[in-house]
Amino acid sequence: MIKNRLKDTRVDKDISQKTLAETVGISRQALHAIENGLSIPSVEIALKLAQALEVKLERLFWLTETAKKSDDVGPFTLFSHKLVDKD
Questions:
Q1: Residue (of 27, 16, 87, 85) closest to 53 by Cα position
Q2: Which CATH number fits domain 2-68: 1.10.3720.10, 1.10.760.10, 2.60.120.10, 1.10.260.40?
Q3: What is the mean pLDDT of the chain?
């Protein structure tokens, strides 16, 4: 599960939802949903939010412990490749 401290960071920097939403190109309602964990932003929006708030992405968003389990990789498969020199 993805958690965030978007609202706290925004409030600490005295930025309104409307201003931040306009800065990153989303609606105020979409920002509200992200702040309250009702929606997960795209990578692009998450990066824009971090940039607009002048913080690292990891400061705003992180995975909870249950989502960090190695067997909980979702729809993606992790591969380990060994490069072989064919000379």
A1: 16
A2: 1.10.260.40
A3: 85
User: What DSSP string describes the chain?
Assistant: -EEE-HHHHHHHTT--HHHHHHHHT--HHHHHHHHTTSS---HHHHHHHHHHHTS-HHHHEEE-GGGG-TT--TT------------
Query: Is the predicted pLDDT of residue 76 greater than 80, yes or no?
Result: no
Nearest Cα to Cα of residue 12 among 54, 56, 42, 40 = 54
Q: Give the predicted TM-score (pTM) of the model.
A: 0.73
